[in-house]
Amino acid sequence: MRPADRSAPRLRRAASATAVAIALLAGLAPAASAAVREAPGAYGTDAGRRLDRTRLQAGLNAIQEAGVYGVYSGVRDGRERFDGASGLADTATGRKVRPDLRHRVGSVTKTFTAVAVLQQSAKGRVDLDRPAGDYVPELLPGERGRKVTVRMLLNHTSGIHDYIGDAFPSLLKGTTESLDEHRYRTIGPAELIGYGVARPQLFEPGTSWSYSNTNYLLLGEVLRKVTGQDPERVITQDVIRRAGLRDTYFPGPDPRIRGAHARMYESFYGIIDPPRDYSDYNMTWAGTAGALVSTPQDLNTFYRALLGGDILPRRQLDQMRTTVDVKDETGAVAMRYGLGIYSMDTPCGPAWGHDGGVFGAGTWALSSPDGSRQFAIGYNLMKYQRLNEAGTAFDPHPADAAMRDYRDRSLCGTTAPQTPDPAAKNRPSAPSAPQAPSAQGPSGKAPAAPRALPPVMPALPGPLSGPIR
After folding, report:
1. How much is the pTM?
2. β-bridge partners, 95
């Protein structure tokens, strides 16, 4: 039986399995806040770490051959650049991807939002340790508004619940119909914040860590209050334009992406089969938490400017890179989350950046601590992984191993060890290509009733919440 044909009960069992890798890393206590900790790394310019364009292109080809429809990427080492792509932008027409396609970058948006808040902090308009309720009392009232600080919103230690499940209510019932029902809906941040705030507090503010998109919509409203402007306009003026980005913008309620872009296909772990095209989508449901459109090249330019000290004063950049440890289900540190940016270990030392995922679009952008060595990648098939027979964890997927190898090759050069692929002897089937997909579904009619899925399945994942490590 193909993984996509598994029964609903087996998928539902995954919701209660503690080993499922998509549990959003929720409820895992962070270590005490730590200042920037840069372990000695192997970043450098010796011959073993120079850009090998042939091998980088082979790495992109390996991701595509492992089952991802299309991948596009930019890699930089000082002034050296590699821009590459592999696979299809449109499975119906056979159009090829290219390196500079515009793309929905999901939660990478959070770094941009955090930078805008820290810029206001540098101007004395926002105090990171002041109660968030002082700025937005109508959205975060009462005792919670007095306990949750702006810093807790930035580093996800607020304990405020994510709004995603209530914004797409069928997910709470174990199905995906609401992804289609709300494709063209315009929804405001106050309504979305209300969903998250109405849920019980996950933990006492400041005592644990849980990724919540509600935090970053609240930060957008803090920006609105202290500047008197729309937060997306503030981020555009003060962050996007200051960094010199040409292909990065907030789409507002427009469901289409301006300019050249790939179609974006969502599998939802085999629930949507064949994967459905969600490249047209009203992204007001993500806002300052995840609505941004960009390119791999723009993301590299942004993170280089940020980490090089060109966008924030040194004091605010140091605050941004003050982190809490986030541990996986085994107790190992999976990443160190700062203020809208995280650090994770690579074979050549720590790397800084963020990842993002929305329906049909995945993104990952990481840089060396000084921004000199960088990689960014976009891909247009999401949640291609499959649960194991017991419904307790994901089967190893070759695309995940290929993605890690490409990341390490991009950041570390030929000195990077190759990740063993435990799936090599028993590779799971890649999702079947959709047949002439449309906005309404493969047949042009309303989509058929989807299979059930675990109610804990995130629609907008937390960082590293999927199997890619």
Report:
1. 0.86
2. 90
